[in-house]
């Protein structure tokens, strides 16, 4: 794997934060759409109308008195995820993978009781994890059973796939793999591994951790150079449909591959980060400009996905 320096990336058209904010986010994202993507519950409801699968919604906790109902609902569940509707960066998400008597087992292996989970729900309602510190609601979802073909590369946490979508066109993608440093979360800033993916095939290109090149996962030891994502075109079409669902011209679409349900949407991001360029060893600007220059835009998600696979395939 060849490492491409930030200076060379700039020559290749690396998008910087100021240009992203002014030329793409401010220009193509209507602020009226932000509450839709900043709230995971609203996102789930709207994308379902466009045929985009999400993890099954088990319960919504809006008021303190409803927490007792959560305890009753969770009695028969082996696993589930608790998320703040308005959280970001993975903050406030608690994943329960199993039960042992009265104890719940977290993804990290730690054991907690129902009191811990109820206190966590109280903190979510108080807005401890929300974007602006405002009161929030908690959503409880079914547990994603990660596809074993991808799960083997990740440490504890579920690997996810970030696809940057511009005007409905998938333009760049990466696989995010949890590590011990990232505490089992697929968050690059916390130490997850980012693996650039070829838009044309869903195969791995480069891999980075803390913006430095890696060839092996630091915890699992697996090589990162021959990863291939199944159902790749389906995932690109799913990401493309989120454009119609939200109207956002520039966004990050985060997907997972469930062992039984296939690709599913985790969340949308109206301000996707730029580290995806480091993972790909390529800049976003040439791809964004090629979409802006289109004389005859493609109107269906299928057409846009096929165009992206042909236009942005790795040479």
List the main descriptive attributes of the protein structure presented here.
single chain; 315 residues; alpha+beta; D-amino Acid Aminotransferase, Chain A, domain 1; 2 domains; seven-stranded antiparallel beta sheet; six-stranded antiparallel beta sheet; 11 helices; 13 strands; globular; ligase; Alpha-L-glutamate ligase-like protein; ATP-grasp; metal ion binding; nucleotide-binding
Would you mind describing this structure in some detail?
This protein has helices at residues 6-11, 17-28, 34-37, 40-48, 67-74, 114-125, 148-151, 232-246, 276-280, 285-292, 301-311; strands at 57-61, 80-84, 94-100, 103-106, 111-112, 138-142, 160-166, 169-177, 193-197, 204-209, 212-213, 250-258, 262-269. It has 2 domains: 6-53 and 147-311, 2-Layer Sandwich (D-amino Acid Aminotransferase, Chain A, domain 1), CATH 3.30.470.20; 57-142. A hairpin with a 2-residue loop joins strand 10 (204-209) and strand 11 (212-213). Helix content is 30%, strand content 23%. With 315 residues, the protein is of the alpha+beta class. The chain has a 7-stranded antiparallel beta sheet with strand order 11-10-9-8-7-12-13. A 6-stranded antiparallel beta sheet has the order 1-6-2-3-4-5, covered by helices on one side. Helix 5 packs across helix 6 (114-125) and helix 8 (232-246) crosses helix 11. GO terms for molecular function: ATP binding; metal ion binding; ribosomal S6-glutamic acid ligase activity.
């Amino acid at each position: 794997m060849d490492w491409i320096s930030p200076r060379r990336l700039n020559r290749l058209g690396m998008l910087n934060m100021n240009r992203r904010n002014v030329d793409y986010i401010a220009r193509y994202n209507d602020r009226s759409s932000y509450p839709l993507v900043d709230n995971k519950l609203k996102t789930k409801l709207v994308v379902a109308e466009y045929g985009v699968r999400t993890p099954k919604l088990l319960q919504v906790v809006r008021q303190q008195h409803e927490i007792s109902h959560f305890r009753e609902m969770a009695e028969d569940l082996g696993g589930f995820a608790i998320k703040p509707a308005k959280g970001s960066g993975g903050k406030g998400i608690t994943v329960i993978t199993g039960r042992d008597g009265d104890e719940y087992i977290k993804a990290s292996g730690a054991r907690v009781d129902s009191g811990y989970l109820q206190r966590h729900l109280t903190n979510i309602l108080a807005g401890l994890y929300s974007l602006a510190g405002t009161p929030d609601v908690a959503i409880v979802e079914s547990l994603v059973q990660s596809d074993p073909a991808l799960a083997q590369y990740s440490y504890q946490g579920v690997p996810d796939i970030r696809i940057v979508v511009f005007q409905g066109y998938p333009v760049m993608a990466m696989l995010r793999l949890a590590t011990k440093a990232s505490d089992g979360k697929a968050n690059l800033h916390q130490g997850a591994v980012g693996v650039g993916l070829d838009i044309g095939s869903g195969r791995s290109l480069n891999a980075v951790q803390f913006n430095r090149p890696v060839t092996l996962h630091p915890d699992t030891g697996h090589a990162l150079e021959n990863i291939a994502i199944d159902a790749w075109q389906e995932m690109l079409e799913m990401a493309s449909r989120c454009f119609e669902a939200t109207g956002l011209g520039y966004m990050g679409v985060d997907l997972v591959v469930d062992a039984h349900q296939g690709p599913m949407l985790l969340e949308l991001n109206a301000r996707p980060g730029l580290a995806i360029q480091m993972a790909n060893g390529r800049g976003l600007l040439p791809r964004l400009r090629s979409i802006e220059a289109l004389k005859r835009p493609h109107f269906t998600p299928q057409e846009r996905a096929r165009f992206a696979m042909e236009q942005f395939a790795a040479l």
